[in-house]
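note to self: the first set is below, dont mix up w the second
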Amino acid sequence: MSSAEVKEVLAHPFAFSTAFTVFSNLFILSGFLLYGMGAISWLGVLAKWDVSKAYPLLGLGFVFTVAIGFVVGEDVTLPRIVGVALIFTGIILVGRS
């Protein structure tokens, strides 16, 4: 959503061409594809695990997001690292229970 092309088209009133430009962007399409694959995977996990054990795994999304942000050059501050470490510790504790 941060590409120059998408920002430009979103700066104007909504039209069919706006939707077409946004949804034909390769990164946006890839994001929707990955989101769909994640939803299907989540349904598979819920079919096999108790919800009380499976739900904390969603916290891994925070861990991966911060790690990817660091790799692509985002500013990852110490409080953010500590927060993610606490989330990760909670996931481990729940997983061992």
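second set (the one i keep forgetting abt)
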Amino acid sequence: MGLESDLLQARVEAEAIMLNLCTARRPGAEFTDPDGVVVTPLVDVFTGPCKVQTTVAQAASPTAGGHKYTVENLQLHFPARASLQTGDVVEIAQAVDVETGLPDLDIQGKVFRLVELARKTLRTANRWNVELVTA
């Protein structure tokens, strides 16, 4: 097997363990609604498999405006063909606990912001550093 076929096979294997279903959105063209309010709609740019992965064992706990937040630094893995951008917002539409077959409510419904693509040669997946902010 050559390098190209090995890489394609590795991408198939990486995608096979992306068990979550997600939708990525990005801001579309602004418009003014009939009430005079400027609206920026979110446009779907990707719907498909993904995987949530941890990167740091410790979450940050900043304080802003007298309120303490927990900021988790995670990664989302997407198929290598997914064309996403910094600032895109990704919602996990479906996540299943593989042991029980039940929805994984620790992940399902969560919304992440793409921060930085971990770039590399011969990547098997697009691995994005993301932020999840919870109060």
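remember for set 2: The domain at 3-134 is CATH 2.40.10.270 (Thrombin, subunit H).
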